[in-house]
Amino acid sequence: MTRRSVLVVVFDDVQSLDVTGPLEVFTGAGRHSGDPYEIRTASLDGAPVRTSSGLTVVPDRALGEVEVPHTLLVPGGNGTRHPAPRLIDWLRERARDAERIVSVCSGALLLAEAGLLDGRRATTHWSVCDHMARTYPAVDVDPDPIFVRDGRIATSAGVTAGIDLALALVEEDHGRDTALAVARHLVVFLRRPGDQAQFSAQLAVQTARREPLRKVQQWITEHPDGDLSVESLAERANLSPRHFARTFHSETGTTPGRYVERVRLEHARRLLEDTADGVGQVSRASGYGTPEAMRRAFVKALGTAPAEYRRRFRPSTSSESA
Question: Model confidence over 248-302: pLDDT tens digits?
């Protein structure tokens, strides 16, 4: 058996779930597979740290005393806003020796500050994506996925996305059965793919202030296969099409057409992930009408066709052309 080591860097104001979520996954995987990970936590001086929620974490040792691990995990939290220069120096000097470098949430900011993400695609918590892109222009920041793998460096979005990434790493190390067993034990989904969006369509835009527009948003969500033209939606809101389009954009931050696109894409993705319905059925149920229309929407938004998306999300599903 190959003993894999995991080192988690901790610091004051770290997000506790960024630390404990992935650790529960790695610990559970070792218990199930009989090939446990060697897990260690370390702070700069080996001193206890206080998380952003007030929980005290007592690390195993100081960073200067640890060997570079197989997997180096850097969590996020408020402590990433003004990191200790010595922590950045350690990451810059030692992290490159790890076989895998992983960040959770705003931990990607620490990797970026250390120059480890230059020229790489990465993600982080949605609330700091713009800041990361402005501050570190050499990093290709993708705000949409829940995690991104670029070579031996993996970055994940906010908080619970670290669990998704850890499960993907466990599946890589120990196989699908082990990852599934851990997911079941933790009562989480195993197969949230890395390119799944951080937001649902409803969370990605603002909720309209006016009741008629909120009802229209709800109608769109519940009837993706309905007539969702501006004229039809405007009629439901008792507004002229021009006034409806202008007001909808003002109150939600997006156009009616783009909102409909988001809802239909999300609905189609869920059907592909959770059902055995054919691509033709999914396209009609999601309001695309034809498989080709849905294929174009998937390629434009996700860079992949519906059938390939389903294969990635449901590996056991038989092949299907689209």
Answer: 999 888 899 999 998 999 899 889 877 889 999 999 999 999 999 999 999 988 8
The number of beta carbons lying within 10 Å of the beta carbon of residue 130 is 11
Three state DSSP letters for 164-208 = HHHHHHHHHHHCHHHHHHHHHHHCCCCCCCCCCECCCHHHHCCCC
Locus of tokens 């850890």: 166
Neighbours of 156 (CB within 10 A): 33
Q: At what angle do helices 291-302 and 256-274 cross, to 10 degrees?
A: 100
pTM of the model: 0.68
- What DSSP string runs through 242-266? HHHHHHHHHHHSS-HHHHHHHHHHH
Task: Report, as residue numbers or ranges, the catalytic residues.
Answer: 105
Sequence letter at residue 63: L
> Which phi and psi (to 5°) does residue 212 adopt?
-60, -40
Secondary structure of 83-106 in HEC code, one letter for each residue: CCHHHHHHHHHHHHHCCEEEECCC
Q: What's the one-letter identity of residue 264?
A: R
**Contact, 209 vs 247, CB < 8 A?**
no
Q: CA angle, 265 as apex, 273 and 222 as ends, to 5°?
A: 90
3 is written with which tokens?
A: 């003993």
How many other C-beta atoms are found inside a 10 Å radius of the C-beta of residue 15?
25
Per the listing, tokens 């699908």 go with 176
